[in-house]
Amino acid sequence: MLRVRNWVLPVLTGIAMLAVWSLGFLSHAPNRIVPGQPLPLWAVASPAQAVALAILAVGLLATAFLQSGRKTGLVTGSALFATLLLILAAAATGSVALANPDVPAARTSLGPAFWLILAALALAFVDLAQQAGLSTRARLLLAVVVFAPVVGMAMLGWFDALSLAREYRARSDVFAAALQRHVFLVAATALIAASLGVPLGIWATRHPRFRARLFAVLNIVQTVPSIALFGLMIGPLSSLAEAFPWLRTLGIAGIGTAPALIALVCYALLPLVRNTVTGLDAVPAATIDAALGSGMRPGQILLQVSLPLAFPVILAGLRVVIIQTIGLAVVAALIGAGGFGAFVFQGLGQNALDLVLLGVIPTILLALACDTAFSVLAANGEPQR
Amino acid sequence: MTLRALRPVLLMAALLAGLLVLLPRSALLFHALFPSLDRPLYTRASFLDLTLAHIRLVLGATGAAALVGVSAGIFVTREAGRRLLPLLSATAAIGQTFPPVAVLALTVPVLGYGSGATLVALFVYALLPIIANTVTGLEGVERSTLEAADGMGFTPLRRLLQIELPLAAPVILAGIRTSAIINVGTATVGSTVGALSLGSPIIEGLSGSNTAYVVQGAILVATLALLIDRLFALGSDGTPA
Amino acid sequence: MITLAGVSKLYGGRRVVDRLDLALTDGSFNVIVGPSGCGKSTTLRMMNALIPADEGRITVNGRDVRDGDPAILRRGIGYVIQAGGLFPHWSVFDNIATVPRLLGWPKARVAERVAALLAMVGLQADGLARRRPSELSGGQQQRVGVARALAADPPILLMDEPFGALDPVTRHGLQDELKAIHKATGKTIVLVTHDIEEALKLGERIIMLEEGRIAQDGTPAAIVHRPANARVRDFIGGEEAILKLLAGATVAQVMRPVASEAAGASIAPGATLSAALAHMVASGHRTLDVSEADGRRIGRIGFEDLDPGRPA
C-alpha cells in the first residue's frame, strides 16, 4: 500500500496549482494607467510548455510517496529546477506573443499566479536544502545554480517584452545611479557606525554609568520610526544650513544625503554597540587575568585578546546593521536621499507597480546577497576542526 | 506592580495625551516657527483620528500575527508539525532580511491601495519575528524540565500550558514587542500606499515641502512608539529590548 | 626572594589580608592553603601586582612591586591559573610563545623555546602545537598553562589553584610532574590551593591562612604533628592527616641500612609510605625489606620509621 512519506512538497505544489487555476499568470493592459486583464497560465503558455508543466506538477505531487534520501532529493531538485525554467520561459514567450508593435503603450506584467509559483518554488528549494542538511558552501552553490539561468535569460533579452524590463530599460542609467546610491548609503552608514559604535562599546564596558545612559538613548532612537527620525532631522539641519550657508557646499541641508546618513547611523549604533558590549563581556575573566599575569598591557589585551575574541559577535552586529540599513535606506528616499526607494515611492505615486518592483526586487536581492555573504564569513570564521 | 514601574508608561501616555490636546491649538506657535508657511498646522484630519487609526493598524496586525505566529510556533514544535520546523525557521530567518517597506510595497499589486493592504503587510511582516521567537523560546526549554514534567504525568496540553509556554513567554513576548515596534514604523510609511495613519501629515509635508506637518506627525508617532515600547517593557523585566 | 611586610588588603572595610609578614626563599616550593575566603588568592595576586596592596610592602628580588611598570614585572614572573586561562583564539604554540613575544625574542629563539617546553610538559606529540585550546583535554590545557608560565624562564612561578578543575587521576599525575619540574629547574614556586592533600604532597613549606592571617607556617610534618590550634587540626583532617603525609613521601626517603636477616615481607623503594603501612597491616609484619625489582635487598623499613618528620 502507498504511504504518504512527505507532504510538504505536495502541499506546496497544490497551492501553486490552485494559484494557476484561480489567478492570472500574466496581466495585459492597453497602457500604463488602466488596470490589466488577467491571463491564466494555459492561455499564455505554449502547448508544449503547458504539458511539461502538468507532468512536472503530477510528478511533484507523487514525491509524497517517495522514501526521502539523496536520490529522491536530487530528482526533486531537478524537477523543481525544470519547473522554474518552464514558468520563466512561459512568462517570456507569453509576453512576446502579447506584444503588438501597433500598440507601443501596451503593458504585459507578471501576474499573482507567477509570483505565487515563484514563492512556492523558493519554499520548496529552502525545504530541500534544510532536509538535505546542506553546508553553507553547498547552499551557496545551489543558489548560484538556481539564479544563474534567471540572470542568463534576462541578459539574453527573454523578458524584454515584460513591463518590468521596459521600466528598467527606460531608466537603465537612473537604475545604475540608484544602485550606486543605495550601496553608498549602506556602506557609509556601516563604516561610520562601526568606527563610532565599536569605540563606544569598548568605552561602555569600562564605565557602567555611561553604559546605562548610552543604551537608554540608543534604545529610544531604535524605537522611533525611521520616517519620524528622518523628518525630525529636516528642521534642525535646514536651519543650520540657513544660518551657515557654507555648510551647503558640504551637502548639508534639510533634505538629501546628510539627514539620511545621520539618521541611518543613529539606527545602526544600537546593534553595533550592543554586540560590541556583549562580545567583550563574554570574554572569560580568567583569560583577561592570564593576559594581565603574562605581562600584557591594557592596549595589548584589547587588541590581541578581547577584540579578536569578541569579533564574531561584533560581525553579527554589523550583519544586522547592514540588513537593517538596506531597508531603511528605501524609506530615506522620502527625504530625497535617492537609492532604490526613489523607484518604490515614485511607482506607488504613479500607480506604476512595475516601477515599484524595480525598486523592491533589487533591494531584496541586495539584502539576501549581503546576508549570504555574512553567512559565508561567519562559517569561515569558525575554527577548523 | 509598583508605581515606579508604571512611571515611564504613565509619562509617555501623559505626553501623548498632552500633545493630542495641545497640537490642534498650536497654530500660533507653528506660525512663529515656520513664518514662510501659509498653513503650518495639519488640519486635513484630526490628530486624534490619525492616532487612533494608527493604533488600530498596529494593534490589529500585531494581535493577529501574535495569534497566528504563536500557534504556528507551537504547531511546528509538536510531533505532528516537526517536519515543518526547518522550513519555517529558515523562512522566518530569510524573510526577516526583507525590508518591511518592501513587504508593504509588494502587497499593493495584490490588494490595491488603502488601509487594507497596509494591514495585511504589517500582519505578514509581524509574523516573522513572532514565529522565530516562539520557536526559539519553546526549543529553549530544558530537556530535563520536559522529562520531569512527563515523568510526573503531565498531559501534553498541560505540559504546554503550564510548563513550556510560561518558560518561553519572555522570548515570545520579545518577538511580539519587536513586531509591534516595526509595525509602528511601517504603518507610518503605509500612508504612501493610502493608509490613514500618523504618517499622513509626514508624507504630505514631505511632498509639499511643509516641514511643520512633518514635525507634527513625527513627534506624535515617536511618542506613540515609545509608549508602546514602555508598555511591553512592563510585561518583560522592565529593561529595553 | 619574595618578601611581604605588613601587607593588607581591604574590601569594603573588611581586611581580607591582614598585616601579613612573609619571606619566601629562592628555589623553595611554598604552598599557601586555607578555606575559601581566607585571602590566599588575594595574597598571591598581590605578588605580581594584579591587585595593589592597601598597606605594607611587597618586594620581589629586592624591588618593590609598586615601582616601575607592572607589565614588565609580570613578564619576569610565571603565572598559572585554574583551567590554564589559555587564550582560546590562539594555538598552543602561540599561547606558549606569549611572553617571549612580548619580550621581543627573535622568531627562531621563540620556536626553539616552545619546542623545549612542549617536551618538558610531555606535549611533544605531532600537530599538538597547532591545535586550539578547545581541542585539548583538561590535563593537556593545564600542561600548556604551565609551559606558558615557564616560557621566558622566569625565576618565580605563581600558581592559583592550578589543578582545581581536573579529575583526580590527572591531578595526581600533574602534581608529580610539577614536583619533578621544580626539582629540575629550581624555580621558586608559590602555589595556592584549598586542598590540604595537595598542599601536604607538594609543599616544602606550607603557609596556612585563616581570615587573612597566618594560622601556621611550617613543613608538612610540623603542621600534621603539631597543629597550631583546633581549627588547623580540623582543616587538615585531624589525625588522619598523617595518612596524607605518608602518601606524599616514599620508602626510599626513610629506609635504614640492610639488616642481616630477612624480614619476611618486602616492598619497592619507590612505594609511598602509605602503601608501606598498608602492606604492614595486611602482612602482619612490623618490618619490611626494601627490595629492587630484581629481588636485591637494599634496606629495611620498620613501623617506627614511617613518621616522615624524621630525617632520612
Automatic annotation (TrEMBL), chain A:
Chain segments annotated as transmembrane: 7-29, 41-66, 78-98, 110-128, 140-159, 179-202, 214-234, 246-270, 301-322, 328-348, 355-379
Domain ABC transmembrane type-1, first and last residues per copy: 179-374
UniProt xrefs under InterPro entries: ABC_transp_perm/SBD, MetI-like, MetI-like_sf
Any one GO BP annotation for this protein: glycine betaine transport
Compartments in which it is found: Cell membrane
Gene Ontology cellular component list: plasma membrane
Membrane topology: Multi-pass membrane protein
UniProt key word Transport: yes
Top-rank taxon, per record: Bacteria
Similarity-based family: Belongs to the binding-protein-dependent transport system permease family.
UniProt-recorded name of the protein: Osmoprotectant transport system permease protein
Source organism per UniProt: Bosea thiooxidans
Automatic annotation (TrEMBL), chain B:
Record-linked PROSITE patterns: ABC_TM1 (PS50928)
Transmembrane segments: 53-77, 84-104, 110-128
A GO biological-process term: glycine betaine transport
Source superkingdom: Bacteria
Keyword Glycoprotein: no
InterPro entries noted in UniProt: ABC_transp_perm/SBD, MetI-like, MetI-like_sf
GO CC field: plasma membrane
Keyword Transmembrane helix: yes
Protein keywords: Membrane, Transmembrane, Transmembrane helix, Transport
Membrane topology: Multi-pass membrane protein
Main location: membrane
Ranges where the ABC transmembrane type-1 domain occurs: 51-232
One Pfam family here: BPD_transp_1
Cell location: Cell membrane
Record-stated family: Belongs to the binding-protein-dependent transport system permease family.
Matching PANTHER family: GLYCINE BETAINE UPTAKE SYSTEM PERMEASE PROTEIN YEHW (PTHR30177:SF32), GLYCINE BETAINE/L-PROLINE TRANSPORT SYSTEM PERMEASE PROTEIN PROW (PTHR30177)
Protein name as catalogued: Osmoprotectant transport system permease protein
Organism: Bosea thiooxidans
Higher taxonomy: Bacteria, Pseudomonadati, Pseudomonadota, Alphaproteobacteria, Hyphomicrobiales
TrEMBL record, chain C:
Keywords (A to Z) from UniProt: ATP-binding, Nucleotide-binding, Transport
Record family assignment: Belongs to the ABC transporter superfamily.
InterPro entries (UniProt xref): AAA+_ATPase, ABC_transporter-like_ATP-bd, ABC_transporter-like_CS, P-loop_NTPase
Entry GO MF terms: ATP binding; ATP hydrolysis activity
Gene Ontology BP annotations: quaternary ammonium group transport
Name of the molecule in the record: Osmoprotectant transport system ATP-binding protein
Pfam families: ABC_tran (PF00005)
Source taxon at top rank: Bacteria
Keyword Electron transport: no
Domain ABC transporter residue range list: 2-236
